[in-house]
Specification:
Elements (H helix, E strand, L loop, with lengths): L1 H26 L22 H13 L12 H7 L4 H9 L2 E4 L8 E4 L13 H7 L11 H4 L4 H9 L15 E2 L7 E2 L20 H16 L3 H34 L8
Antiparallel strand pairs: 1-2, 3-4
Length: 267
């Protein structure tokens, strides 16, 4: 009887120890992990919210683009996605001056942007970016959702997580308290404020709404083929399913004359 009780208690105690170790590991983190906010595009058949991607691009363009670049996204990607018309994107591209060349005389020249050009960077080069930000280079946001644990949840939590520094914690000058950032001390000041942008569709531009929209846009920027990949995946799954059914019926048809035979062994 005692041995039975011991066998029961040992797995239970192991479970408690494992849970305690897990909790200690979480408590030792230097930041609060972001929650799962249940984004609509996370389903197997769900696509990005096109209106949210469009609003998020507006937030990036009017707020984030002054410091951060998205070098891996070109204007043509906006056209391919379909949330913008080709003429609309061409007009946006032509508003920027792109250094090109050399020309026939060997000189560099400026020209209006084209659909094949990447979205413009706020700085001419890395050194200029560091000089404008006290030696720190603002990261490129092209793959930021892929580069951070939590992905789009982390982006939203970070943008909405600024708060007052708790008592007893001291920050160096120029740093801001954000519990979702590793170390909780971030040099970027709160980038979003209510009504910082004016959405053409009339959506209220609250901090949470803008953070949601720009997080969706950055998720799309990190994977512009997201919607097409899911469509192609479902087509392949359907095709393979039909092929499996047809193959099964064909196998039964070909082997039916042998599988239904009765073999009699004579003594």
């Amino acid at each position: 009887m005692a041995s039975t009780a011991a066998r029961v208690l040992v797995p239970a105690s192991a479970t408690v120890v494992a849970a305690a170790i897990s909790n200690n590991a979480q408590c030792s983190d230097d930041h609060i992990p972001s929650l799962d906010f249940g984004w609509s595009h996370h389903g197997p058949l769900a696509a990005f919210d096109a209106a949210g991607v469009r609003r998020g691009f507006q937030v990036y363009k009017e707020v984030c683009a002054s410091c951060h670049s998205i070098n891996r996204v070109s204007y043509r990607n906006l056209v391919e996605y379909g949330a913008w018309s080709e003429s609309e994107v061409k007009a946006m591209a032509e508003e920027t001056d792109v250094v090109d060349g050399p020309d026939s005389s060997g000189e560099m020249f400026e020209r209006p942007g084209k659909l094949t050009d990447p979205l413009p960077s706020p700085y001419a080069n890395e050194e200029a970016g560091r000089a404008a930000n006290g030696g720190a280079l603002p990261p490129d946001l092209s793959l930021m959702v892929k580069a951070r644990h939590g992905g789009v949840d982390y982006i939203f939590a970070l943008l909405t997580g600024y708060c007052d520094t708790p008592a007893g914690k001291e920050l160096l000058p120029g740093l801001h308290y954000n519990p979702y950032f590793p170390g909780a001390a971030i040099s970027m000041p709160p980038p979003l404020m209510d009504e910082a942008v004016e959405y053409p569709d009339g959506t209220p531009a609250t901090v949470s709404q803008m953070a949601k929209d720009v997080a969706i846009f950055l998720a799309w920027a990190s994977e512009p083929e997201h919607d097409d990949r899911k469509k192609a995946g479902m087509k392949w799954i359907f095709a393979l399913g039909v092929s499996a059914v047809v193959t099964g019926f064909y196998k039964r048809y070909r082997w039916s004359t042998l599988k239904t035979r009765q073999i009699t062994y004579l003594n």
